Amino acid sequence: MRLSRYFLPVLKENPSEAQIVSHRYMLRAGMIKQSAAGIYSWLPLGYKVLKNIEKIVHEEQIRAGHIPMLMPTLQSADLWRESGRYDDYGQEMLRISDRHGRDMLYGPTNEELITDIFRSHVGSYKDLPLTLYHIQWKFRDEIRPRFGVMRGREFLMKDGYNFDLTKEDALHAYNRHLVSYLRSYERMGLQAIPMRADGGPIGGDYTHEFLVLAETGESEVFYDSEITDLKFGNREIDYDSVEQCQAVLEEFTSRYARTDETHDEALFAQVPEERRRVARGIEVGQIFYFGTKYSEPMGATVVNEKQERVPVHMGSHGIGVSRLVGAIIEASHDDKGIIWPEGVTPFHVGIVNLKQGDAEADAACEALYKSFTALGLEPLYDDRSERAGAKFATMDLIGLPWRITVGPRGLKNGVVELTCRRTGESEELAPEMAVEKVAGIYAGL
Amino acid sequence: MRLSRYFLPVLKENPSEAQIVSHRYMLRAGMIKQSAAGIYSWLPLGYKVLKNIEKIVHEEQIRAGHIPMLMPTLQSADLWRESGRYDDYGQEMLRISDRHGRDMLYGPTNEELITDIFRSHVGSYKDLPLTLYHIQWKFRDEIRPRFGVMRGREFLMKDGYNFDLTKEDALHAYNRHLVSYLRSYERMGLQAIPMRADGGPIGGDYTHEFLVLAETGESEVFYDSEITDLKFGNREIDYDSVEQCQAVLEEFTSRYARTDETHDEALFAQVPEERRRVARGIEVGQIFYFGTKYSEPMGATVVNEKQERVPVHMGSHGIGVSRLVGAIIEASHDDKGIIWPEGVTPFHVGIVNLKQGDAEADAACEALYKSFTALGLEPLYDDRSERAGAKFATMDLIGLPWRITVGPRGLKNGVVELTCRRTGESEELAPEMAVEKVAGIYAGL
Questions:
Q1: What is the E.C. number (chains A, B) (predicted)?
Q2: Do both B326 and B394 map to the same domain?
Q3: Are residues A331 and A202 part of one domain?
Q4: In which domain, by residue range, is B409 found?
């Protein structure tokens, strides 16, 4: 993309309404614009990051054998009356009346709807195991929406639901989700620690939250520092293997890690003192096993091998897709702006032309642009007639991990400058070597 | 995908509520499930088709130089009061009151919101031309939703908005949209004819609708039969070229083609009688140029080269993404089921194992499955222990364009059977030749 043809409305000033760094940078980098309290438009740059995160989530869910579908945003109140949650949910549920006066709601979650789909179509244990998921916009009418997309009212979430014949099978589904979530977050450049959590309104006595450590996190977290050394890495996993998934669960959850909601001082005291950490974290996902909590009242049953009709064991599993955009920024930025991990960056590399209009510099930039595009990488080429300082400031603010600077002086010596956003380190390279180096980094993801 | 692990709840009976063929087949093929009047869940098979259509729309919009973003589903009523449309829109607008009693609405379209984004961030003619678009769920509270996804209440639409300094530039944007729409529909296997249309509530004195001919179409259409011979084909086009885009507009709109709303008997009579056609059509898209209708009242202005502040010229351009799923089925089916065009099919090829459990047949199917997957194609392998007739009926119903049938008898002669869904023609081929033939068809798309 050429910046002269893009829509990137960066702001020079810090917007006064933004209290945390991700909100501030998302506004300043032209990623979002608030259209109503807690409701945002995703401007082109923000949209690209959102889609990159969504893509990783899809790929990892499909890899785990989970099946994508899509439920609508609006739901009938009747289903929620059946589960008993319509009255329980309180004012965070946006209740709507249609032109015929029928009670509807903007779905804050989808246990009822998916259970209804299941019971309408599945009747035999032979159709199990089954895990369906979708990525859809949801709404929670927060009384005080704030922190930008971190606590908005309309938000994008992946929610998945497993249906299994037995508790044992459902716990395998739980473990599969845990593994797929670890992989997903790592691909986004995040370390998200699974912490024992509280069931809340969805219910469930077996649940973990995934927390990203960040000073601005809404939760206080307590953990054994050994946990931050764990990496999922590139290991191969067979998602059908109960043992392999269970082993990952044990590896990543056996050490102490809890939020303030479930924190237990006595247990924490058993962690060697030098490994005890108290910090803050941002919740970016949660997995639940809740057994027959919805299947029983809603009649989601199957006939088992003995011809008995039994309620299925279910769980639900969520990833906060739009919230992750903010969480990644909270975890990865400096005082100049955002630092995107390569896995989610909106453009793979920035090209800064120090002397727009100089025939040699323009040609070199165009050649770089074509080389990257031919390799399937997306460059953002700042082809505006701005001074170098303004171009650098924009690139630093929007946080592309790699920048190539092209100017007449370097070109005389046959080089361009390749700069890493995270370290700030630069090196001079022949243009084709710079392309090769950047391409190699992305090929290794 | 192995069918034994998929969620494909096909129905044997015709659902009584479905009046038109696309609705009937979408329910029977397990593509959708109604969750409330005019509101559907997209089951896995339907979701895949929806995503394929969405992908084509994205690719063609980006090719035309239009920039993707995403606006929220819920909007504040204030913006609609500013344009004067809040009261005009009538009961089809779903009005919502949040917990603080603020007036909101579920967006039926986004002229106000995009104009607000534009005026907040763009001030100079140098930032033009600009075309932003998004693909998002919208809601129209139809009094009598019917025909499945063809006239649902919650529906997925691509809507794009161009901002230009002059009427001339805006008409070029209009033409770019026309060209990109022609390409999009052709890639979906559809012939959609641009017809002179009526502005309706969006306004605009320059507008075309795109109609797909189908007996169940909601509009009566009148056209010169020469129009159906026109193909966009694989021609290269420079979207920046005013002349090239204008030439396509003229080629595709110079012959008589109108819906009942704009039909003119006198003009139609000038078409040679043997070329006059009266038929029915389904609207799958519409483009508008509406000048300064929104930019003037909402103050969306730029400073031009003479330092004068002028309102921008705008247009809006929509494609009915979820509606297209139904429209494609209306245009492409037979009495056995759907016939997907290769461009949108949910799976590229079906593999039917005539004797599940037979070692040789199982191995041959697995080998085909792996070959297709390795080529980046998605097979649907019916690995269930069902009789052949039931497997064929399912494949015919869900409409995959190509089917490979594998049985012990053929394998003895070293062949499998490759069947074209559309023609019903079969040929016996060595398995690797069948893979090569199918791969060749998709490579040519």
A1: 6.1.1.15
A2: no
A3: yes
A4: 349-443
Position A104 pLDDT exceeds 90:
yes
- State chain A's mean pLDDT as an integer: 95
- ipTM score here? 0.96
DSSP-derived secondary structure letter, A125: G
DSSP string across B193-254: EEEE---GGG--SEEEEEEEE-TT-SEEEEEEGGGGG---TT----TT-HHHHHHHHHHHHS
Taking an 8 Å cut-off on Cβ atoms, the answer to whether B141 and A98 are in contact is yes
Query: Is residue A180 located within the same domain as residue A227?
Result: yes
| Per-residue confidence (pLDDT) for residue B305, from 0 to 100 | 95
**Are B65 and B95 members of one domain?**
yes
Structure tokens belonging to residue A414: 């046959």
**Are residues B370 and B321 part of one domain?**
no
**Can you tell me the distance from the alpha carbon of A431 to that of A411, in angstroms, rounded to the nearest whole number?**
9
Chain B residues in contact with A71 by the CB 8 A cut-off are 35, 41-42
Give the residue from A96, A140, A386 with the most B CB atoms within 10 Å of its CB, the best one to mutate: A96
Cβ atoms B202, B281 nearer than 8 A: no
Q: Are residues A311 and A374 in the same domain?
A: no
Q: Which of these three, B269, B303, B336, is where a domain ends?
A: B336
- Say yes or no to pLDDT of A70 above 60: yes
Q: Which of A42, A99, A132 sits opposite B70 (nearest CB)?
A: A42
**Angle at Cα A249 formed by Cα A305 and Cα A279, nearest 5°?**
140
Minimum CA–CA partner of A11 in chain B: B121
**Do A58 and A106 belong together in one domain?**
yes
B33 interface with A at CB cutoff 8 Å:
yes
Together in a domain, B14 and B122: yes
* pLDDT tens digits along B162-195: 999 999 999 999 999 999 999 999 999 999 999 9
pLDDT value of residue B197: 84
